[in-house]
Amino acid sequence: MSFIVAVDGPSGTGKGTITQLVAKKWGFQYLDTGATYRCVTLKLIKEKIKLEDEEKIKKALSEINIEFDGDKVYLDGEEVTKKIREEEVNNLVSQVSHIQIVRNSMVELQRRMSEGKNVILDGRDIGTNVFPNAEVKIYLDASTEERAKRRYKQNKEKGIDISFEDVKKNIEFRDQNDKNSTVGPLKQAKDAIYIDTSNLSIKQVERKVNNIIRKKKKLVDSIENGYKMTPNTPIKKITRAFVKGLLNGLYHIAFRVKVNGVENFPKDEGFIICANHMNYLDAAGIVLCNKKKIRFIAKADLYRFGILSWLAHLFDIIPVKRGKSDLNSIKLCLKALKNKEVIGIFPEGTRKGMAKNVKIKNGAVFLAEKAKVKIVPVGIHGTFKPFSKVTFNYGKPIDIMALKSDDPNWLDNASKKVMDDIIMLTKKED
Ligand code: DC
User: Fold this and answer.
1) Could you give all domains of the chain from N- to C-terminal order, each with its CATH number?
2) Whose CA is nearest to atom 8 of ligand 1?
3) What is the pTM of this model?
């Protein structure tokens, strides 16, 4: 299991310092992604490769060997920790980092270096591009004035003679370049936590970041360890029947429910039900308005909250971790299908996926093929407004094995066929 912390932001926000302190505190590996671009820049300088010479850059990238050992950075076996911070690299690195093939290669390297580990990475596009599913995303920022002050002080300490005004202009110029670049632009990820460090000390920022990590780690650990399938004891079965009956009654009071086509369900074998997804109430309707026990796949976070967690356990909902291929949940599904159980999946992967034009997920077809079971499409029609009509139209089972072929796109094509059947069924009102 890996835990990724992505720290992005412009230069002069204290990213490097904070990230190293936090890495030490949590025992995480620290990956300075800026250093990877600096290594490429140094290699291009050493080998006198022009930035326009794509072929030579490609070759250099295919041969490059970048390694980190604690604070030390190695390029092709030579220690370059200090060299990559020298003026000639400083002057060129921004341009090099905006070359598409360089970016592709470094993003791949950064992902490879982080594989299966707990890592904290600092950079510009970590939360948006390198690890869009990072467990924690932080965007550090500070006013231009403050960042210029910090850089000016650093320069003075290093004996570099440059006026405060020039330092500020350089920062403004670089910010514009970084934010407007078409290649790996500096941008805050939508789900990143923003911290303005202008008036904060290093200690204060470190504390804030540590608190964010602590909370997320607790949550991730609780999901990892918290979900245990509770056995289907007689008491659980009775409780489930009672709760299902009660909720079914409430559902029928809230909506005028019509269910068509249950005779299409395959007999005496496991199968997968695939539906369109508009609302949380559609999954509830499928589970409650069916004699058969249907186990939906839902995001693992459901198991965190009191009553929802209790219901998830009671109805044996199969948890899946978002944005990752979750081996554990695949195993649970296959085991259930082998036991002739019925599993519910929304191929859109999200609510109102069709309207959002999302790519249809092919998890359901993948599972059906592995377990050699059929998929029953269901089109749900309704607004879910109180007392309105909601119709569940179950269609003919789709034999996935018959759709399997040597075509490398067969999974996508079969998933599209499932979704097309669902859409057709949503149009049948009665
Ligand atoms: O953080 P730094 O100053 O060492 O970064 C060196 C350069 O690399 C800088 O111009 C920004 C760029 N960079 C990038 O484009 N993407 C990253 N993930 C990290 C750095």
Assistant:
1) 3-224 (3.40.50.300), 231-426 (3.40.1130.10)
2) 34
3) 0.62
